[in-house]
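Case 390 in the screening queue. Each case pairs one protein sequence with one candidate compound; here the compound is pyridoxal-5'-phosphate. For every case the pipeline is the same: read the inputs, emit a complex structure as tokens, and attach any notable structural observations.

Predict complex for case 390.
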Amino acid sequence: MSDTWNKRTKAVHAGIRRSQYNEVSEAIYMTQGFVYDTAEAAEARFIEAGEDEFIYARYGNPTIAMFEDRIAALEGAEAGFATASGMAAVNGALTSMLKAGDHVVSARALFGSCLYILEDVLSRYGVEVTFVDGTDLGAWDAAIRPDTKAVFFESVSNPTLEVIDIKAVSALAHAVDATVIIDNVFATPVYSDAIAQGADVVVYSATKHIDGQGRALGGVILGTQEFIRKTVEPYMKHTGGSMSPFTAWMMLKGLETIDLRVRAQTASAQAIAEGLHADGKLAQVIYPGLPSHPQHALTKAQMGAGGTVLAIDAGSQAAAFKLLNTLEIVTISNNLGDAKSIATHPATTTHQRLSDETKAALGITPGLIRISVGLEDTDDLLGDLRAAIG
Ligand SMILES: *Cc1c(COP(=O)(O)O)cnc(C)c1O
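Case 390 output:
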């Protein structure tokens, strides 16, 4: 692979390892283990495994290595570790580097399971977490202390689509040598430049746009060679959250088409957001690509486009449920980044666990519907939504 390749080329070719048969499509190595020629060779490999030497699939496997190298190249990261799910990646990135007594600053607007790790899990092990409004740089500045070990945020929050300034928050964190860990799902690898903008560690749920067709759970942690090999890998390989080789193969195939899919889904999301906003029938149309979005300028500078997800507010839970039940093309489910358009009612599903006060503070209103725009015809989708909105 050449470093001068553009993202689309890397997404198709980076990381490939061909067997003696020179197959075109990546081989699936469905094996948990590997055979050593001699006892001495086994001993040597356990002391230090070389670049293309594998021991056990929980540690690594050729198909998984292809996926890790491809997504790392696409993201501009030195290395990656593939995980069984996005949550295994979020948990692995945080837990592998933190210990009792450490301090973390996190944005408050988080995916429910991310909030569970930061709020419930880490505190049980003596890690102190301060939550801030991620869009308020003054709040980050006030919360980050000389002893802060890490900052964590979703660069675009789920489901209210707040966009957080990666460059500015990273500068504040780096002033005290804190590690910047970003859950970058909504930005997608296509619109991400997070590492160049200051992130130290980028985490993806591969379940979303990387697979992009709703088939499998997966995740990946990306960072420096030092962080991945010395901090993440020992933790992940011994605690068991590794990706399966078959999943890695699906994710490799997903990466080959991710640029086309995400750009088409984003163009559709932009047109739908503009159409619904112009109709003026909804209490709110939230989309980072709309000039009315509070971080519209930041979105353009940081990502270049608004992404594949928008949120609308139907006004009440009853109106939201009626709207959802009237949709014919857009399906009711809770994945996102899928080829199929999906509508979610966060207050009663993905974010049900949160108290009413927390929901209100995060803008998760009873009428809020998150819409992940898929690959269907844009006019069909807009027609389906307009008919349901009435
Ligand atoms: C879906 C999601 C996750 C979790 O990923 P899984 O693959 O479902 O475990 C984490 N963060 C964000 C922002 C997500 O959207």
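Case 390 observations:
- The first helix runs from residue 7 to 13.
- DSSP finds 15 helices and twelve strands in the chain.
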